[in-house]
Amino acid sequence: MVFVMLLLVLTGLAWMVQIVAMMKFLVNYGVKLSNFLSLTAMVIPFIISIILPFVTFITILFVYNKMIGDNEVVVMASAGCSPGQIARPALLLAGLLMIAHFVLNLWIVPRAQSMFYDTQWNLRYGLAHTQLRESNFTEISHGLVVYVDKVSGYDLNKIMLSDTRNSDSQVVIFANTGKLVATMRGLSIVMTNGSLQAMGKANVIGTFDTFDMDLSVAEHNNDTATRARCMSTGTLIRTLGTKLGPKQRKAVMAELCNRLFGPVMNLLLAALCLTILLRSSLLRRRTSFAPALSVVAMAGVMAIFMSLSNMLTGAGDIIWVGAGIAMLLGIIMAVLLRK
What we know:
Elements: H1 2-21, H2 24-28, H3 33-41, H4 44-69, H5 72-78, H6 83-125, E1 136-141, E2 144-152, E3 155-163, E4 169-183, E5 186-200, E6 204-214, H7 224-230, H8 233-239, H9 246-261, H10 264-281, H11 289-309, H12 315-337
Helix pairs in contact: 1-4, 4-6, 4-10, 6-7, 6-10, 7-9, 8-9, 9-12, 10-11, 10-12
């Protein structure tokens, strides 16, 4: 019950932060509320995959620290229960969550992230959701402003387009008519009967009968980390065999490390917390330091893991990280289960 409550509360808080951060979709792009909520809901699997080890740790820390405070652990130990027997329910929970986390990381999260970025890109730049208001200047992206006198579906009349995104090549276009069309990059405007003024290293002034301008408002999943996050696990592994730049390889290695070893953190943090709490509870002195020590140990382990995942450069590094995690988990479990 504590685990479910914490998971719902923390996931809900993180989801609300995402909703606030993405509120511009409702304000600037006229996205329907249902589409907006569907878009933000796509990040929930990713949120859960991030917070799951921490929720597991906090749950076990809360429950077992309460048992220690109520002297239930001392009573069970006096009745002949070993630390391993007392820790068994928490280890079982952590093991089940580790399996669920593997399912999330290897299949659900990559698919959900791919859908999220595709949907976000389509809502922001897609033809169906681009709204040009009549007799208004519309800033499609920073430095790209379009004025349209009349809009009839995808047909436009009396167009003025100002493109100042590139300071070395600024363009102003006037056209009598135009039409919005879909391209692989998003939005394009085909304009007819107009004039063009290009200002840069060389100034150009001319007229045209037809001019097709690819607005190029955004590259689809252009960020390296975003592309790696959206790849399926099989594609991510196969990518290691291709020629990658240092930045791309680092992003792929970090994502692969998080997918393969992130779920193990559920069991590792649970065992670490149980070892500190249960072993210290049997000492004949005050053990109020145990929760704080558990938190410090958890923070140290997660900091080392996240630092190592961002420092990997080759497939051999993943093997070393996996071996280190397995060794650390084995040591902690040996200490915990020792009678």
